[in-house]
Amino acid sequence: MQQPLPTVLGNGVQLLQLFQNILSNAIRFSRPGAIPRVQISAQPYGQGYLFAVQDNGVGIPRAQHERIFEIFQRGQSSNDTPGTGIGLATCKKIVEAHEGAIWVDSEPEQGTTFYFTLKAA
Ligand SMILES: Nc1ncnc2c1ncn2[C@@H]1O[C@H](COP(=O)(O)OP(=O)(O)OP(=O)(O)O)[C@@H](O)[C@H]1O
Ligand SMILES: [Mg+2]
Questions:
Q1: Which atom of ligand 1 has the smallest separation from the CA of 88?
Q2: Residue 1 pLDDT > 80, yes or no?
Q3: Does the beta carbon of 85 lie inside 6 Å of ligand 1?
Q4: Ligand 2 ion: residues within 5 Å (CB)
Q5: What is the pLDDT of residue 2?
Q6: pLDDT per position as a tens digit, 12-46
Q7: Cα(32) to centroid of ligand 1, in Å?
Q8: Which of 33, 48, 92, 35 is nearest to 68 (CA)?
């Protein structure tokens, strides 16, 4: 299902980097044999919006849900995927610089949803 996404307030270059990192992860950590599907949605949340980027990829074990936001920390799922482990640390910095929050909900094999809040334009 498609829906238009809202306009947010913030630094364009940083917000581009945020979406690029989250979306490239969603595509890179896809599940072998499954067609990658990524859904981006947003709903009103406080003074702004709560964005959700949901994929049907390999998922992330619960024990790693906080660690993946630290610099140079790469998860199990990344063993055969090149990367440096700075993407999500950068995303967290960017969201927090915009006075928002970012978190993840995921189960191995069930896919992953990243949530983050941004202010309305
Ligand atoms: N959508 C996702 N599905 C499954 N695992 C993910 C997803 N996004 C992130 N991860 C896990 O979190 C880890 C950290 O992600 P992060 O973007 O910080 O680093 P990276 O993608 O490995 O490297 P870089 O972003 O620097 O190229 C990844 O290595 C991966 O294990
Ligand atoms: Mg990344």
A1: 18
A2: no
A3: yes
A4: 25, 87
A5: 72
A6: 999 999 999 999 999 999 999 999 999 999 999 99
A7: 16
A8: 92
The CA-based angle 15-17-18, given to 5 degrees, is: 60
Residue 99 region, left (φ>0) first, then alpha (ψ -120 to 50), else beta? left
Domains of the chain: 12-119 (3.30.565.10)
Q: What is the DSSP string of 28-90?
A: HTPPTTS---EEEEEEEETTEEEEEEEE-SS---GGGTTGGGSTT---GGGTTS---S-HHHH
Residue with tokens 């906080």: 66
pLDDT tens-place string over residues 82-114: 788 899 999 999 999 999 999 999 999 899 999
